[in-house]
Specification:
single chain; 410 residues; mainly alpha; Growth Hormone, Chain: A; 0% strand
Length: 410
């Protein structure tokens, strides 16, 4: 394979292995979203809306909290040791955690399975991006490969909720007494896909240690550190909004709009499709990669507006329109933040991208938990959406001037 400027670009087979890993992790996360309220309702054996909202939010936040705690650790370890080995460990552990999640019969074990899924998923996402960063000969090549990883993750998020919703819907129609089995099968199938992705990582990724060709990283300047923090803040705010939106959408669909699991799954499917298109456009030849920094502030503005409009969407169709606004803006912001973090990271790709995953996961955990806890807050109806819109607006204000600083990196 041709070496360009000291870098050895990955072949398409290796890129496909990384995309498969991203896809499986996203499926494992997305498959839970439409199922979770029904699963909690069955295991908790309680029908109170407050209890359902509380556990749905905390379980979603538990996954993201695990990513927050462990992603920086996995990233730093991958900088020091073999990235393929960390990916294999993550995929193997993720498969085991999904199996546990499928077989649980109590809420404590449900929380344990969700936490372990996050622990091992956090070993996949930052390390996959870091692998691309290690082998990037040009900024354009890095952006295109990042776009492929984003697309793979979005495709997984598209498939996951659809499978979860169809599992409950199909089981309820065919065997009403076996709804629990309908939930179990998709998780076990995804566990098998995770093992298959692990085998592709083992066979297709280059085995040479990336550390042999990377010089020792130089300390960042104060301006460089501030720049990283500002980009991490964008990741945090965007993920917070997505986490709150996911939980709020699931609960609103069930408790307010009286939608079934299949219809809720359709809304998440639409979310994935819109994000897929948005991500494809961001790093397409239509937009120069260095100009993506100018999309940050408009993206935050649309995200805040979409969240604020959710309470006014009183039906399935209007909700679909609002979902499109939120999904499009999040689909633009997330890959842009990842790209500029990687471009600013130098030779510590794993550590910096681990921090980026951690910041996004913390935002998602806070947003999901807060949305679940505040959804039925009588003193302030629709607090989960309104307060999140306010926080995104604050992030927008804090991002003023950021494109000018990013120009120094491009």
């Amino acid at each position: 394979m041709k070496v360009i400027d000291g870098h050895r670009p990955l072949g398409w087979q290796s890129s496909f292995a990384l995309m498969s890993a991203m896809f499986v992790v996203a499926v494992g996360y997305g498959i839970v979203l439409p199922v979770l309220p029904f699963l909690v309702e069955r295991l908790a054996r309680m029908g109170e809306p407050e209890t359902l909202s509380w556990h749905t939010g905390l379980l979603t936040g538990t996954y993201a909290l695990a990513l927050f705690l462990f992603a920086p650790l996995w990233g730093r370890v991958s900088d020091r040791y073999s990235r393929p080995r960390i990916l294999l460990l993550g995929l193997g552990g993720f498969a085991s955690a999904l199996t546990l999640f499928a077989l649980v019969d109590s809420l404590p074990l449900l929380y344990l399975g969700r936490f372990l899924s996050g622990v091992f998923a956090s070993a996949v996402t930052p390390v996959a991006y870091a692998f691309i960063g290690d082998h990037s000969p040009t900024k354009e090549w890095r952006a295109r490969r990042f776009a492929l990883l984003n697309a793979a993750g979005t495709a997984g998020f598209f498939v996951g909720p659809m499978l979860g919703g169809l599992a409950i819907f199909g089981a309820a129609q065919i065997l009403p007494e076996a709804v629990g089995a309908g939930i179990t099968v998709p998780f076990l199938a995804t566990s098998g896909l995770a093992l298959l992705a692990g085998m592709m990582v083992w066979w297709l990724l280059p085995t040479a240690d990336h550390l042999q060709t990377l010089p020792i990283a130089t300390p960042k300047t104060r301006d460089g550190q501030i720049l990283i923090i500002r980009i991490l803040s964008i990741s945090f705010v965007t993920a917070l909004a997505v986490g709150a939106f996911e939980v709020g959408l699931s609960l609103r669909g069930k408790q307010v709009l009286d939608l079934n699991a299949y219809q809720i799954g359709l809304m998440f499917t639409e979310c994935s499709l819109v994000m897929f298109v948005a991500q494809a456009l961001v790093f397409s030849p239509l937009i120069k990669v260095e100009r993506t920094r100018y999309l940050i502030i408009p993206g935050l503005a649309v995200l805040a507006a979409g969240l604020a409009m959710v309470p006014f969407a009183s039906g399935f169709i209007t909700t679909i329109l609002v979902v499109g606004m939120v999904a499009a803006s999040a689909g633009v912001l997330s890959p842009i933040a990842t790209y500029w973090i990687s471009l600013s990271a130098g030779k510590t790709q794993g550590a910096e991208l681990g921090l980026q995953t951690s910041a996004a996961s913390l935002g998602q955990a806070v947003g999901a938990a807060a949305a679940g806890l505040s959804f039925d807050f009588a003193a302030m109806p629709n607090a989960s959406f309104t307060l999140t819109a306010v926080l995104v607006t604050a992030g927008l204000v804090g991002s003023i001037g950021l494109p000018r600083f990013l120009k120094k990196v491009s």
